[in-house]
Amino acid sequence: MKKRKDRFEIVSEDLLARIGKLYTKSGVVRTPTLVPVINPAKNAVPPSSIVEMGYDLLITNAYIIKRRFGKEAETVGVHSILGVETPIMTDSGAYQLLMYGEVDVEPEEILDYQVKIGSDIGVILDIPTKVGSSREVVKREVEETLRRAQQALSFERGEMLLVGPVQGGMYLDLVAYSAQRLSQMDFDIYAVGSPTQLLKEYRFGELIKLIATAKMNLPVGSPLHLFGAGHPLIIPFAVALGVDLFDSASYALYAMGDRYMTPYGTIRVERLKELPCSCPVCSNISAEDLKAMPKAEREKLVAKHNLYILLYEVRATRQAIEEGTLWNYLEAKSRAHPSLHEAMRQLRRYVHFIEKYDPVTHVNVSAEFFYDEESRYRPSIYRYFLRLRDRYTPPPRKVLVLLPETSEKPFSRYGWIAELKKRLEELKIDAYHLVVYSRIYGIIPLELDELYPCSQYEAATFEGREYWNDIAWFIRRYGGFYRDLIFFYEDGARVPFQALVAAAAESGKRLEFVPIRKEKSRLLQVLEFLKASL
Ligand SMILES: [Zn+2]
């Protein structure tokens, strides 16, 4: 068995997301993953079938097991109660505390019980924050949770990994405080508590704030669990902020309510004309047959289908991490529901934090896709701006030449800009510093354009205004390095001439505008102009 601190291994990363391996005494769990909640009394889908689908961690409730099986469970163990050998996580009854206001068990008692029934990952009996509680109450409960957390760590837990939950709900200062205190305690896994209400009400933007606040105040490298967040829509967003594990009963609860999951939301079973899925369940039945079935039987099938959808989402998210395209994936997903759009907007507010940990290079380099102005808020672009601001010095040339971006990239290798560069070199004209202005990156100096990610992107043509600010910024900042500034633009393009003139004036220079006409060769027009103005 690995030492405690080595129980979580990070294999690859994108944004704050990571592919990891969590070592438990019953085996290795690949993360990020969804952890299906198993009702130990009766479950819509047998736990062994869930494992067969490809889930490698289940969660069940030690409190319910204790009430139902008592001492017997200590003899047979939780694995044989569920009939699986895969790793099992147990919850402590905190959820029941949240729902019913009390549980008749002591924190130490339930911790001891989790160890005795052979749980792989145990959770302390914390006090979940209720939505709507006053700040005073939440503060008191957070303190009580921290006290119990401290106590739990001194408890002999053998090989069981232990989870320390952050509480505080929507009082973000209390969330931060709770996370800071917990980060000084040596938990194997940290968790973010009580988002259930937020998820139910589709308050995804607030959920992002909750997760980000906890993450910023916890040890970044430790595994992080999010309680009760099993909606396929929110999984990639939480993963992007560094969540590794989610437990959820959503597959069963939705099935009970006749709700059929899709990667883009849920559909009520009675409205299904088609089964828009090719999982083993949906491949063998029609929508009509499903609707005609007795409720209990249908519930089982829908639950199983829902599990397949969740697994699909987990795997698609992992693949995006491997490819370094998670932000692309989030942008595409954010169109599925307005509250996801809000989640995306909130996520952008943490770009500074995300950029700090986002790996600079990826093993599998893929082109970035840009859809609209919002794509410009990506950590990779934010990083590019920081570098251009803090680490860039223009080469010693007399004239700055600004050229409009082309579809051929890198600009210095393909298309007419590459040809222009070559011709100038052949003519031994070295007065000019060529830079390209881009909807995405603002300014790309030609000598940098082969560096990732400038050279590897595909951008839709969109009418934005904000990128002009970055172009103006570059002129303001670096204009003073040159004697002259020449701005080429496609004739008819909507260029904010005045703003650019003002930016040049601030650097003490005049900006000359030169239109490039469509009917003639761009290369020859620009080349002739540059040769003539020497
Ligand atoms: Zn299906």
Description:
The protein is built from 23 helices and 20 strands. By secondary structure, the protein is an alpha/beta fold. It has 2 domains: 4-356, Queuine tRNA-ribosyltransferase-like (TIM Barrel, Alpha-Beta Barrel); 370-532, 3-Layer(aba) Sandwich (Rossmann fold), CATH 3.40.50.10630. A hairpin with a 3-residue loop joins strand 16 and strand 17 (442-445). Helix 10 (204-216) packs parallel to helix 17. The model has no long low-confidence stretch (mean pLDDT 92). The protein binds zinc ion. Zinc ion binds next to helix 13 and helix 15.
Lay out the secondary structure.
Blueprint: E1 8-14, E2 17-24, E3 27-31, E4 33-38, H1 47-53, E5 58-61, H2 62-69, H3 71-76, H4 78-82, E6 88-91, H5 94-100, H6 107-116, E7 121-123, H7 135-153, E8 161-166, H8 172-183, E9 189-192, H9 196-200, H10 204-216, E10 224-226, H11 235-240, E11 245-248, H12 250-256, E12 259-262, E13 265-268, H13 280-283, H14 287-292, H15 295-323, H16 326-333, H17 338-348, H18 351-357, E14 368-370, H19 379-390, E15 399-404, H20 415-426, E16 432-438, E17 442-445, E18 457-459, H21 466-478, E19 484-490, H22 497-506, E20 511-516, H23 522-532
Helix pairs in contact: 7-8, 8-10, 10-17, 12-15, 15-16, 18-19, 20-23, 21-22
